[in-house]
Amino acid sequence: MKANALKKIPFAALLAASNAALAAPAAIGAVEKQSINMTAVGMFLFFVVVTLGITWWAAKRTKSAADFYTAGGGISGFQNGLAIAGDYMSAGTLLGIASLAYFKGYDAMPFAVGFFIGWPVILFLLAERLRNLGRFTVADIVSFRLDETRMRIMTAAGSITVVLFYMIVQMVGAGQLIQLLFGLDYVYAVLSVGALMVVYVTFGGMTATTWVQIIKASLLLIGGTVMFVLTMAQFDFSFEGMFKAVGAAHKDGAAILAPGMLLKDPISTISLSFGMMFGTAGLPHILMRFFTVPDAKEARRSVFYATGFIGYFFLIVVAMGIAAIAIIGTNPQFFVGGKLDGALIGGGNMVAMHLANAVGGNLLLGFMSAVAFATILAVVSGLALAGASAVSHDIYAKVIRKGQVSGDDEMRVSKIATIGIGLLAVLLGIACEKMNIAFMTALAFGVAASANFPVLVLAMSWKGLTTRGALWGGFSGLIVAVVLVVLSPAVWKTVLGNPQAIFPYDHPALFSMPLAFLVCYVVSILDRSSTVQSERDGYGPQFVRAQTGLGIASAAQH
Amino acid sequence: MDDQRQLDRVYSNPKFADLVNRRRRFAWILTLAVLGSFFSYLMIGIARPNWLAIPLYAGAATTIGYLLGAVLIAMAWISTGIYIRRANEEFDPLTEEILRESRK
Questions:
Q1: Does ipTM top 0.90?
Q2: CATH 3.90.70.10, domain A2-59+72-434, yes or no
Q3: Distance (Å, rounded) from C-alpha A93 to C-alpha A371?
Q4: For chain A, which residues score pLDDT lower than 50?
Q5: Total domains, chain B
Q6: Residue B38 belongs to what domain range?
Q7: Is A315–B70 a contact, with Cβ atoms under 8 angstroms apart?
Q8: Is the Cβ pair A544, B35 closer than 8 Å?
């Protein structure tokens, strides 16, 4: 099981754990169906009733395409900050980072900081421009002065790739987690997540999706804080006391509290940091949140609040994971067969859940289980909406119908697209049940960092970028990221069963992202197409709008 | 087109160039500070891991590494507050002024 694997091949498994932390608990391992936990089921059903009520309320307010895609631009900075934090704090962050800290001690700290540190940079360099230039989707920004049809097709391809792989990870994680915590069959778990997600998104659009995310983020922050306080109470609220107890409890002693395996392979670590940092700024479900606030000022505020919540949450999760070494690691109750050096019951990702049980009993375990389920549900809803917008707004309305389409028609297509994405997610979730899907997170973040991010940044900030340069750069980033992931240990060895991986690192971003930037640059400066001059001339007006928000009011009213 | 004339007036306003330069410099300084400190922290862990294992004070189990990580997150968050403060107090009024002048 996971716990043993982590001891045998620390680095490879650590990357697997870090993958889990990036998205959903992908690698729970062979899970067995548990008896039904009534506290958890009751609390989750309560969450479902409340969120369906919100969806009903939101449906009445969702009349235009702008309401559907961006909640009419009427979300406040604080609300959006919570929603962004909610999108970023998936079930995998709670379970994955806590497990990483439990098994690897100190190494979870630089990992958590690296996963967090992209946020201030998004504020300094992107947030205001995203708000000033964007309307419904990221493609609105990159096609502002470049060839609309080709740019939208490419951006939609990148977005849909990221959404699908990220969604499979969430679905498989949901199925395994729910099976474990609620005692519900895998297939029913995946089906219920898919069905609820389709209801939220098709009826309530962005308004419902945002409020589901806000409620879940609040529950996660409250539950996490309660758990943290109860955990620290075991050490009389002293970090020093906690670290002493951990050093005494762990078989490696105080060494667990010092840098370890994570840092033995710097290239892997840095490539992972790159993927996390810049991939975040290319995730379509995160980027679209910047279009739900009225102006650049609120966009800034949202990042401020989101950064605060995410940083706080990551820190307490690391602390809890480390504290779990002293609390869980010494309690045979949580180990298979009661053997302290054996595997954790339910697999390596269950550290946070066992800790909830240990410090707060069945009530807290039930609450945190319900929150974990709610978390997955909220994240897949955001993903589904992002994917559906790419299909209906970019491909259908702008590419196929060339913009000659009514808002109602466009909304209808986006609802059909949501149902299609929901079906696809359920089918793929069921198909991938037994598969080792750790690589899919690397793929989603790798593509986001290497295809979406470079084109977005250059389109907004470099006058010289041409359509041809953007297409070559974006597609080379997309293809190279996918190829490198296929050749990486996670796929070439683990999934395909070859003895040796061709590309030694699980995360491609360190290589594929600079390549994409380089290709964009070289192809753009060599571009001699007839449209180059008008594309470069278009940069001035775009620049003024990006910097001042000129014309933004009319964009929101459309 | 009216829109176009307004865009041109903003673009040719020296205050606009001033706004863009000031904001750009400030944003890059903060970006480099945040990323620089993070990668230094990561690199110290890679090259000199025992530096981060130094106890906070003689006999402590708490090490410098944890404190630095927590301080990094706190400082990064504070830097977002610093950016927003200057944006609210300086960049927004200047933008308002430029837009007002462009509507004349």
A1: yes
A2: no
A3: 13
A4: 1-30, 554-558
A5: 1
A6: 2-103
A7: yes
A8: no
